[in-house]
Design a protein that fits this description.
With about 80 residues, this protein is α+β, with helices and mostly antiparallel strands. It contains two helices and three strands.
Length: about 80
Amino acid sequence: MRKSSVRQKSTGDIINSMNQKEGKYVKALLLVDGEDNIVDSFDIDVFPDLNKNLIYLCDYFHDLHAAYRWGICDGR
């Protein structure tokens, strides 16, 4: 699961960011009324740096566990 941040942003700004990011997806949340008119819009920004660092830490602890297991238990 990725950690996300939801920020209120104008619909025009969201459309502009969709046009600027070639080849990348833009996550947005649109709040509509009963007649499907956009009432409010929010930009959903995934924290790529946090995700990258968590993957690094996960790999580090996996490797550390393997090293201890090999050194203490002869790999068993």
